[in-house]
Amino acid sequence: MTLIAQIDESACLGHGDCVHVAPNVFILEGDVAEQVAPGSDEALRNAARACPAGAIIILDADTHAEVDP
Ligand code: SF4
Asked: What are the backbone dihedrals phi and psi of residue 42, each rounded to the nearest 5 degrees, phi first?
């Protein structure tokens, strides 16, 4: 399964945990995370698990169904 991530900007608290876990995929733009590269499924899952705000939503790239990280 190929995964994609969506960032819920209204939920993002800007802690940067996702940037710490997946620095090649996420950056902080001001106080909101932004995805700057596709990232591996593992990197996306790890970032979503690390997010204290639950602001990173993982989706199946084909169906766009939400996937438990
Ligand atoms: S870990 Fe979550 S709350 Fe923190 S910057 Fe990333 S998306 Fe935002």
From this structure: -65, -45
pLDDT score recorded for residue 1: 82
pTM, entire model: 0.95
Ligand 1 close to Cβ of residue 16 (< 6 A): yes
The CATH number of 3-60 is: 3.30.70.20
Q: Whose CA is nearest to atom 6 of ligand 1?
A: 18
3-state secondary structure of 51: coil
Sorted by where each begins, the domain ranges of the chain are: 3-60
From start to end of the chain, where are the E strands?
3-7, 26-29, 32-35, 56-60
